[in-house]
Design goal:
The protein folds into 2 domains: 9-69 and 131-144, Chitinase A, domain 3, CATH 3.10.50; 74-125, Thrombin, subunit H (Beta Barrel), CATH 2.40.10.330. 5% of the residues lie in helices and 44% in strands. The protein is built from 1 helix and 9 strands; from the N terminus they run E-E-E-H-E-E-E-E-E-E. By secondary structure, the protein is mainly beta. Its EC number is 5.2.1.8.
Length: 146
């Protein structure tokens, strides 16, 4: 059988971890997922790491922030008046909120992590929670084809 190539359908398992060892996502070997290489179902850099592997082979790759969830931008951390939340919600540090913002006349729903919640203000981080982080994936190809 030939190794994994672009547009192949593959059965894979993987574990994604942060440098601390914290597991952030896992697809166990006894329940692999099936995906098509190039479909974007998983990070493109992880898909690319599967290229050339044969069934039964594993690989560990370190995905840099720019190939994962992007760089961390301090400019995406904002302090807002607590009054913006009125009586709808009581923000607490660690909460991830879905907020409505308007940009260039278009309304968007965006996630924001509450970093701090004071009496008068709330500090929100609009970066992805994994932005700026290197993620290590250990991937295994179980099968190639349907």
């Amino acid at each position: 059988m030939s190794p994994v190539q672009l547009f192949d359908t593959v059965s894979v398992s993987y574990t994604a971890t942060l440098p601390s060892g914290e597991v952030i996502e896992s697809v166990p070997e006894n329940k692999p997922i099936t995906l098509t290489i190039g479909s974007g179902r998983i990070l493109k850099a992880v898909e690319a790491s599967l290229m050339g592997l044969e069934p039964g082979e594993s690989k560990t790759v370190h995905i840099q922030p720019e190939d994962a969830y992007g760089s961390y931008y301090k400019s995406l951390v904002h302090e807002v008046d607590r009054a913006n939340f009125a009586d709808r919600i009581d923000p607490k540090p660690g909460m991830i909120l879905s907020l409505t913002i308007e940009r260039e006349g278009v309304t968007h729903q965006v996630p924001a992590t509450v970093l701090a919640a004071g009496k008068e203000t709330v500090t929100l981080d609009y970066n992805h929670p994994l932005a700026g982080r290197v993620i290590t994936y250990t991937v295994k190809v179980h099968a190639i084809g349907n």
